[in-house]
Amino acid sequence: MKSQSRVFAALPTEFTEMKANQQGLEPKAVTGQVREVQVTGAAEASCPADRASMRISVTSSKESAGEVTVSITRRLDYILQALRQHGVRGEDTSVRKFLQRNADTYCMDAEVVVVFSNFEKMEQICSVFLEKLDKSVFVGTPQFYHSPECLGQIRRRACVSAVENAQQKASEISQLSGQSLGPPLLVREKETREWKVEEEEERSAPHIPVVTASSCVSVSFSFRDRNRKKL
């Protein structure tokens, strides 16, 4: 994870006197006067795809609509049963059927779309289908993608890391200037970016995209004199 931060001191002008050759934050102020330090921080978070969609196509041609329906249904029943046996939930599976007539022949195409979150399980099921089913069944290449929950988590991680980074820098500045860092007054996300990179370890392996999200935040903290007297 890459991160960077910039620090600015925003102090009331009536309490600040800076020399022309002065470096760092060394404001002159009335003891105990609350001041403000503004810090900007940036961070990135990345994550590979957490979902994969796989299509299983079945085709059959018969002389009657009844025969082709029975043929397709038998294959679909086997496919759906195999999916259930491997722990695939019904809500992660959808089935579509298309019947058409060409001259004296009835053709039916069926498609099963399965969504996986366990890629190892997906590979096992693919192997079973390729071994047990004939050429009338086609197992498509998995399409990997990020779920909305995963994308939301990446964005939150980037934002939280940016705030933590900004707070760390503000704490270091307060120590160097002899101040005590107070609670945050305002947190504002200034900029967000998101991009996807296709990752392929082997030529024969499918692409697994990796999404990276970046966040730039501006945080204002109260800034107190560490040596102020308690009332």
Automatic annotation (TrEMBL):
InterPro entries, per the entry: IRAK1BP1 (IPR030312), SIMPL/DUF541 (IPR007497)
Keyword ATP-binding: no
Tagged with keyword Manganese: no
Keywords annotated in UniProt: Cytoplasm, Kinase, Nucleus, Receptor, Transferase
GO-annotated molecular function: kinase activity
GO cellular component assignments: cytoplasm; nucleus
GO biological process: immune response; positive regulation of canonical NF-kappaB signal transduction
Main location: cytoplasm
Compartmental location: Cytoplasm; Nucleus
Family: Belongs to the IRAK1BP1 family.
Protein name: Interleukin-1 receptor-associated kinase 1 binding protein 1
Native source organism of the sequence: Nothobranchius korthausae
Phylogenetic classification of the source organism: Eukaryota, Metazoa, Chordata, Craniata, Vertebrata
Gene responsible for this protein: IRAK1BP1
